[in-house]
Amino acid sequence: MTRILVVEDDADLALALRVLLERAGHTVIPADDGREALRLLFAERPALVILDIGLPELDGWEVLERTRDLSDLPVLLLTARGAETDRVRGLRSGADDYLPKPFGNEELLARVEALLRRAAPARWAGESFDDGLRLVPERRSAVWQGQEARLSDIEYRLLQILVRNRGRVITTEQLLDRVWDDHAATGRERVKFAVLRLRRKLRQAAGDEAADPVEAVRGLGYRYRT
């Protein structure tokens, strides 16, 4: 059975979600605040997270940000806020889908099944990738060819996005949007120089000028080589 972490502080709604999902054949891991959600996320490693925005302790935005530091597993946001700006913020922050309250049971199940169907096996921080790279979120660093490279927050987020999309070209505009939250896609030179610094640190860590998994794709953007 698929394990789903449900993060919801409304006891009645949490119970309704649990009954609905368990009847559909899933195993539910409940959490009613942000800190408990993060503890269970790492301990249980679910296949999907259903996350409410309005939470005590840490709110849903903070939980989403920390989740994206730990894993690329699918996240479905639930919120009473129906404003377009909140929907856009959620998707740009790394959520995979967004469902405003109130919602229908069948729609929620359909969205859950679609996310699970499309999702590849989740990657988790602390695990090695096929080429030996390991992201270390608590130190904002990367272990590359056995040596640790200390990164700035920007460099870490760049590498995180590139490696999660390994083999695919990520455009300069997409990186501006996702790393700097620059929706107007201005300041393209920031991307260029940040990527140059990231690549230099990875080469220095490996002690090899050729040991660079990030490549520039002329006129398009950047790619993490598989």
From TrEMBL:
| Residue intervals of the Response regulatory domain | 3-116
Protein's name according to its UniProt entry: Response regulator transcription factor
Which UniProt keywords are listed? DNA-binding, Phosphoprotein, Transcription, Transcription regulation, Two-component regulatory system
What residue stretches are annotated with the OmpR/PhoB-type domain? 124-226
Q: Name one GO biological process term.
A: regulation of DNA-templated transcription
Task: Report the DNA-binding ranges.
Answer: 124-226
Which SUPFAM superfamilies does the record match to this protein? CheY-like (SSF52172)
- In this UniProt entry, the residues modified to 4-aspartylphosphate are 52
- Gene Ontology molecular functions: phosphorelay response regulator activity; transcription cis-regulatory region binding
